[in-house]
Amino acid sequence: MHLAMPARKSSNPPPYATRSTRFPMLRRSRVQAIVLCACAVGAVLFILLQVLGGGSERIPSGTPSVVIVTVLDTESFKQDYINKIKENRIEYAKKHGYATFFPAATNYELNGSPPSWARVPAVRHALTKFPHSTYVWYLDQNSFIMNPDLSVEGHIMNPKRLESLMIKDHSIVPPDSVIKTFGHLKGNQVDLVLTQDKEGLAQGSFIIRKGDWSRFFLDTWFDPLYRSYNFQKADTHALEHIVQWHPTILSKLVLVPQRTMNAYSPKDAAGDGTYKDGDLVIRFAGCEKGGRDCAAEAEPFSKQWKTAFRTQ
């Protein structure tokens, strides 16, 4: 009986059949059409988002362009005087569509630092509270806004106007600091506007533009290290220090003539810094010292600003 033997496999088997990797023409056309349609839809959506404001920050309707911040010392001054200060800011803000913010100095933990430091976290607070506003104007308590016709944007922050006001190549700390203001800044590059008095930087009235730089600046100014230095003039000398040692801060700062937004009463000023009728602000910068009475010094100007506002 013969058993069938399995056929021997050839030592040269035929090559495996290969599968074509080419797309049929019809399939390839469909893929191309789908890709082109997807690109077209994406382009249309992008354009619509840009037109409707999706490509930039959307500012809610009614957002105030400026927030006026004044830190109030409710423990050392009578309520009647505090109310006059608030009324002054509120009336001016109503005229121009601005907002006001009146935190108390005691709202902020200063860890034993002088109360004047409260202005820094107060401005930082305002930037958070009014995230869509363009500017924060900090104005010390012992002062009045005197000219209701002058707006922050038109009188100071308009780029062309600001360029005409800038004090260029000027010593940060008078009379002969080697660190000077920049000479080539354009108005739209400025994020901090300050003035000087006869002693140095005067931070009782300043304007800051919202943004990453402003938050960096305020956080640097309020650094616990600087507050622990016990500078003779607290936050004033700390400000002068960081402006001179941090080019990033100096590069966004300009000085403007003192009377632009920080004129002093005759008791506190000298020369070009003395208040004159028509100026935006009068400040009673030293009235807290030497037994002076801030409310009494301010009273004649309280009547004057109310008369000016009523005639508008």
TrEMBL record:
Pfam families: Glyco_transf_34 (PF05637). The keyword Glycosyltransferase applies. InterPro entries: Glyco_trans_34, Nucleotide-diphossugar_trans. Gene3D superfamilies: Spore Coat Polysaccharide Biosynthesis Protein SpsA, Chain A. It comes from the Eukaryota. This is Glycosyltransferase family 34 protein. The keyword Glycosyltransferase applies. GO terms for cellular component: mannan polymerase complex. One of its GO terms (biological process) is protein N-linked glycosylation. Keywords: Glycosyltransferase, Transferase. Signal peptide: none annotated. Residues 1-20 are annotated as: Disordered. It comes from Hyaloscypha hepaticicola. Belongs to the glycosyltransferase 34 family. GO terms for molecular function: alpha-1,6-mannosyltransferase activity.
